[in-house]
Specification:
By secondary structure, the chain is α/β, with parallel strands linked by helices. It has twelve helices and nine strands. Helix 5 links the parallel strand 6 and strand 7. It is globular, with a radius of gyration of 19 Å.
């Protein structure tokens, strides 16, 4: 395994490529959020007896895109009393589902509530899932990256990103959660979902994106032939007449276009030997990110990234941000104004 791409770490830290952004990007997402908001959230938390003595677990269901039920777990420290907790809303890597509750103990062990969102249609590769995807498919390469790619409205990740917004809302609806101390997080696909969620719910407290997927997508397929990006290469090799329309659809979901719209503190990670999410793609999103940010670089690792070392960094990051009940973040008023402009389809002023 060798370094991926032809840029040194110093060059990567300066790598800020031009973005290809649809003119109606904000309007598209405003319309999507309005469509989703028309359905009652209907969040339900059903306590489970899991045999775990230090945490309390609930089976979660809430209405995601199209009002369709999305599953998840809600895990919190046992005996937390009436104190409102900071909460990590967690998204899963590609192919995985919510798994089993005992596999999700980290954040509750650190004193936080944790909502783990199942990823619709996934969960039959390395971790079991329970949420079907009933959306449009059309001709697509096996997997999810090209599912519904014929149009932004039908694209698979429109449904997933909308589900992620609802997952944040579901977490905030739980009486044990302090709604001002909700963080979105994930690795790989989960990291990309977290970046999108932080842009679409701009008053979350922070985002943690570990070796994120869905960043600088066109460059990614030029750098790697490893799955999942290989699905897109396969699709384009067959649908030779639809290459540009496919990348136009993807531009609505590329985290490089969400990054300048996000102001909350962020902790990224990147691995310089990562063939799944090549380093230039991660740095493209990081360098366009508008909020306070930091990145951990793992020079001799592949897509596993920093693993326990990155987790240690995340624990320190959260300890500074949400371990104690804090006053409203100084930028939160601006976040709310930006969200109102988005929902009202008003012109966005430069950040």
């Amino acid at each position: 395994m060798a370094l991926v791409g032809d840029l040194s770490e110093a060059e990567l830290r300066a790598y800020r490529p031009s973005r290809v952004e649809p003119a109606d990007f904000d309007g598209f997402w405003a319309a999507t959020l309005a469509e989703v908001a028309a359905h009652p959230l209907a969040a339900e938390f059903t306590p489970l007896d899991t045999g775990l003595s230090t945490v309390e677990v609930s089976d979660v269901t809430f209405a995601g895109f199209g009002g369709e039920p999305v599953r998840g777990w809600f895990v919190k420290p046992r005996g937390a009393g009436d104190e409102e907790l900071g909460c990590v809303v967690e998204f899963i890597g590609y192919g995985g589902g919510r798994g089993l509750p005992h596999e999700r103990l980290l954040w509750a062990s650190a004193g936080y509530a944790n909502l783990i969102m199942d990823t619709r249609g996934q969960g039959s590769t390395w971790s079991a899932g329970d949420t079907p995807d009933n959306g449009a498919a059309g001709p697509h390469a096996p997997g999810f990256l090209t599912r519904g790619i014929e149009s932004p409205a039908a694209y698979y990740y429109r449904r997933v990103f909308a589900d992620a917004v609802r997952a944040v809302q579901a977490a905030r609806s739980h009486p044990a959660v302090d709604p001002d101390r909700v963080v979105v997080a994930g690795a790989s696909q989960g990291g990309g979902i977290a970046l999108a969620a932080a842009a679409l719910v701009p008053d979350v407290r922070a985002v943690m994106a570990d070796v994120p997927f869905l960043c600088h997508i066109r460059r990614a397929v030029e750098l790697t032939d490893v799955a999942p990006y290989q699905e897109l290469t396969t699709y384009c090799s067959v649908h030779r007449d639809k290459i540009e329309s496919a990348f136009t659809t993807l531009s609505y979901f590329d985290c490089v276009n969400f990054a300048p719209r996000t102001l909350v503190p962020a902790l990224f990670s990147v691995a310089l030997m990562d063939e799944t999410c090549p380093p230039p793609t991660v740095f493209a999103a990081y360098n366009h990110y508008a909020g306070e940010k930091q990145i951990r670089v793992w020079p001799f690792n592949g897509h596993e990234g920093g693993m326990g070392f990155q987790t240690q960094a995340q624990l320190g990051f959260l300890a500074q941000l949400i371990s104690a009940k804090l006053a409203r973040h100084p930028r939160q008023a601006r976040h709310r104004l930006l969200r109102l402009r988005l929902l009202a389809k008003l012109p966005r002023h430069p950040a």
